[in-house]
Amino acid sequence: MENYKQEFIKFSLNQGVLKFGEFELKSGRISPYFFNMGLFNTGSTIAKLGDFYAQALVNKEKNFDLLFGPAYKGIPIVTSLASSLSKNHNINKPFTFNRKEAKDHGEKGQLVGAPIEGKVLIVDDVITAGTAIHEASNLISELNGEVVGILISLDRQEKGQGELSAVEEVSQTLNVPVISIVTLNDIIEYIIDDGGELNKFLDQIRNYREQYGINA
Description:
It contains seven helices and eight strands; from the N terminus they run αββαβαβββαβαβαα. The chain has 216 residues and is α/β, with parallel strands linked by helices. Helix 2 (43-60) crosses helix 3 (74-89).
C-alpha cells in the first residue's frame, strides 16, 4: 500500500472520522465501521485532507480542465484540493461548485466559481446512492461540460442496487473512472499490518464484506 494511503487512514482514525463498532447506515445495513467526513472541520485538517485528495489525483495522472464540488460536502473538498494542487504540485486549475437552490439576486444562478467548460472532474466525499454525483453530472452536461472522472475519499467496495458496488454503478452509468484515496481493502490491510487493538474488529469487517461486499 502506498504511504499516502496509510497516512490517510491514520489521519482519519486520529480525527475520529473513521470509527469501528456498530453503526446503522442510511441503507439500513449495520456496518462495523463508519466514515464521517464532516469531522474534518478545522483549517489544518481540511488543508491536509486536500493534500491527500491531490496526491491520489496526481498518482492517476488524470487529465482535466476544471474541478467541480457538489453541494454541500464537495464544496470545502474541492476548494482545499485546488489549493493543494497549486501549492504542492504546481497544477493551477479552476474550480466551481453549485448551490442547492439557484440564487435570484446579485450574480444569480446556481454556480459559484469558474464557468463550466472542458473536461470536468467531480470531487466528493463518498458514493452511497450516487444521487449528488448524478445531479452534478447532469448539470455539467447541460452546460456543455464533459465529466471525465470522479474523485472520492473512500470506496466502501459495497454492493449498490445490484451485484455491482455503488461506485461501480456510478462509474458504469456515467462511463467514467472513479478514483478513491483508499478502499475498504486498504483499511483491512492497514489493520492487519498495524497489529494493534483494531484487530478485534477484523472478523466483523470480513463478515460484513462477505455479506455486502463485491470482493467477498
